[in-house]
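Thread: Newbie trying to understand structure tokens

Hi all, I'm a second-year student working on a class project, and my supervisor (Dr. K.) asked me to get a predicted structure for one chain before our next meeting. I've only ever worked with sequences, so writing a 3D structure as a token string is new to me. If someone could post the tokens and maybe explain what I'm looking at, I'd be very grateful. Here's the chain:
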Amino acid sequence: MTGKPATIDPRRAREAGLRPMGPRGEGWIGLQMVLEIGILVIAPLTGPAWGGPARLITTIAGLALLATGVAVFGWGASHLGASFSIWVTPRPSGRLATTGPYRYARHPICTAQVALCLGWALVAASPAGLLLVPVVAWYLDRYKLAREEQTLLAKYPEYPAYMRAVPHRMLPVPPQRLVPSDPAGV
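---
Reply by user tm_fold:
Sure, no problem. This is what the structure looks like when written as tokens:
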């Protein structure tokens, strides 16, 4: 023992206090849907705010983000297989996915959802939609995924090692090292 008092990471302490909001986390999903549907509705109602070459560029970028979001969502869902669920609480028979996009981000489906929101706001050329995208990302990272990770930590004893190997919830980065349950590194 070093004699230093134990320190508690303030973020982890806050996250530990997040409420379930329903047996499967329905409240967290409901808030996420309100934000995402808000972008779907508000963006076309408040755009296009610009035209000409800027509109063409943002439309192309938006379409690319929409395609990327669909692809990453599908890739993530395919690696989850029967474990895929919209709920915060994992399926009782679920397994921890650590392959495919889960080697780069712990929640690539949420990454895909943010890309879809951003793509839609760009296609609509909507400043209001663009302002809501960081709100969606912030909510997912700080609240919905923080609560989901509480349930994953409780269900999967290997989740802390996975968190160390894949340090970001949504930001895709190269893994720190091979995840123990994925020795092939695929």
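A couple of things are worth pointing out once you decode it. The CA atoms of residues 53 and 59 lie 10 Å apart. Residues 25-85+106-165 form one domain. Feel free to ask follow-ups in this thread.
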